[in-house]
Amino acid sequence: MASQQLREVTVTAQGARQRIADTRLGAEHLELSRLAQVPMLFGENDIIKSITLMPGVHGEGDGAGGFEVRGGNASQNLVQLDGITLYNPAHVMGIFSTFNDDALGRATLYKGPIPASYGGATSAVLETHLAPGDMERYRGSATVGLLAAKLHAEGPLVRDKLSFALAARRSYVDLFLKMVPEYRSTVMNFYDVTAKLRYTPRPGDYLDLSFMAARDNMAISDIMGMYWGNLGASLNWYKRCGGRLRFVTTVSFTHYNPKMEMSVMSADQRVKEYIHDYNAQTRAEWTVAEGHTLAAGLRTELFRVLSGEFEVNGIRRRDLRSGWLNAVWAGYEGVFSERVSISAGTRLSVFSAHAHVNAEPRVSLKYNITQLHTLKAGAGLATQNLHAIRANTTSFPFDRYALTSAAVKPERAMQYGLGYAGMTASGAFDWSAEAYYKDLHNVYDFKDGRTMFSEVELESIIAGGRGRSYGLELMARKNAGRLTGWVSYTLSRTQTRIPGINGGEWYDASNDRRHDFSLTVMYRLNDRWNLSGSWIFSSGQPITAPDAKFELDGKTIYYYSRRNGYRTPPVHRLDLSATYTRTGKRFTYRWAFGLYNAYCRYNPYVVYFEDDPSKPSGTRAVQQALFGLVPSVSYTLKF
Q1: In this predicted model, what pLDDT tens digit does every residue of 606-623 receive, in sequence order?
Q2: DSSP calls for 222-290
Q3: pLDDT tens column, 46-58
């Protein structure tokens, strides 16, 4: 009975054909059933971990759950769930994603020119949607694992009119870590809840009310502590007028509240922040004729940002800012022949702080060489008014936030791309290659000798300049048969040049990864057993290390000669999983077994520096790993 089964894995050629047919350069309509085949770590299908196995997309690493796209950092991505903007969408520093796989319905990643309907992101957009509840029957599932448990329920409240879907998770990772002597003092736990109501007054029209809440607590002994969470809700109204005109109106809010504590180099430091985001938008889509669509929309968004309320050695200060963004956009998609199609649009935005006005044109072109081979080209300008600046003297994955102001200008990114994609006639294999160049302006970093704790007024300790990123992305997929999977490789470079930093010379950005490789393999042993594995390799992260130290008026001063002149060791990891599924007359159950970091590679989570009189520089680097080998077992019952 299909209604009683777990989400099935159906491998067809549809995904390959869709990638060939899509006009947009760098767009990935994520096949959730396909992503469900990648290693099921801790009993979870993690969409964030899955997309980091694609070319041009890089995970921030152990201890950070974000993803970086084409030289951008995680804060330059726009991540939305039913119109709710999510900040730092990860649990337990990257072990789990904020996205509960039981609740997710569909997702699209834009890593090339971003559609004109999206703003506030200079790197990429990940648009996700919660699945609505079943209008006809009740369904549910429960999962218990070594590290977390979750529940899911859905069904009709009024048959064929009103449905609900509810999902919740709670971890107990701390109990597992206390069994390992090295991690007994580590704090690590989270929870999340998502809910969706769908009302269908008439066929083709519906109203969605969505809600999500998530919270994390993470601390390593007396070195550092990080605490963060998202709380948000949205109301989406979808309205059709005949067969050609469609309207979508959305109102939403997000409260993001991070907090960090750190004790290194004889300093006790604490910082508290928040981002409050309120927005409303509407869009209209008109199908002018077959193969030709016009779209236009409006958006207004209010930000309230606490850039820092922190305490350093008992002294407390804070910096609170507000901003108002208004935007109008228009777009067109058209097919001109069997060979040529275009997707183009432009966005005009005004940010209240000193009336910063930005025009953002974007275009993608596709030329079909044959039905199986295609060329794509694109270019797009994007701006961002919420800036995140990360510390460069440690590898802590924590940012301080600044809004565009008189001193801080909007970040601007111009991206150019060229790509080729091909497939076999059956769709059993497909492959792609894309090259890109990205030119960035108003990129900000901490001034030499400054850290996130130096001043509460962020504008006084940061400087702006330029950035550039360029690279080549290669990917090959096997889509059919019992053995499927893909291999991807990215060769790239990301650099920054800011007057007054590093002598005004170009230096490698903190998110520069020269080489990024991944191999994902999935094997269907029989109707009940599925095996999968993935191996990743990535170049180390650039980091700034002190070259010397000296005493001045009884204080220790550290001297840094080069920005990001050193790198952490390379990161590599093997993940394995096996799932056993059995379907009965009334219930379906699944066992999931996983090995995270199967050969126990201690990849760097935190690299910091401490005093060491025996070293010529007076300091030494200390590396902390977050995970070794982590086994997992989970049991799911679905009814």
Answers
A1: 666 666 666 655 566 677
A2: TTEEEEEEEEEEEEEEEEEETTTEEEEEEEEEEEE--EEEEEETTEEEEEEEEEEEEEEEEEEEEEEET
A3: 778 788 888 999 8
